[in-house]
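Q: I have 169 residues here and want to know how they pack in 3D. Can you give me a structure?
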Amino acid sequence: MSNARSIRDHNPPEPRPKAAISVAEMARMVGLSRSRFYDLVGKGVFPPPAYLVATRRPYYPQELQQRCLEVRGSGMGFSGTVALFYPARSERRSPARGRPLRSRKSAERPDPVVTAWIERLGQLGLEGLQPAAVRAAAAEAFPDGTEGKDDGAVLSAIYRRLRASRSAG
């Protein structure tokens, strides 16, 4: 009996469809942004929403929700056109390595801590440092992380490692 209960607890039931949902919620269900979803509604890929008479607010009743999910799953648009969908960014894989592709946004955002270290190390005479090299030196010096450590001690350890690697190379 306890075994049946544990299986049931680990496999929650499928969510029951709602009577009506907003356009934004429908867009999330099919894995698209609201603006892209509206764009595809305009092109006839997805069915247009119904509208509440009193408020003129767009919504998707259960029948249209099901139709939108069928369009996404089958690739056959509402108007009979073929609709191709790319997987979400988090699901895309690098063809050569089979690893998830990294978003350009994450590559463009500098780590403020590493940026501060680079600036202070530049003041100490180490110029042209790359963030990856500074992170590697910090990880080598502090395998358990730098949180809670004295800033001067962290900077000193990173400086020594980078200086040693430059003189060795």
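Q: Anything worth noting?
A: Residues 17 and 155 are 55 Å apart (CA to CA). Residues 108-168 form one domain.
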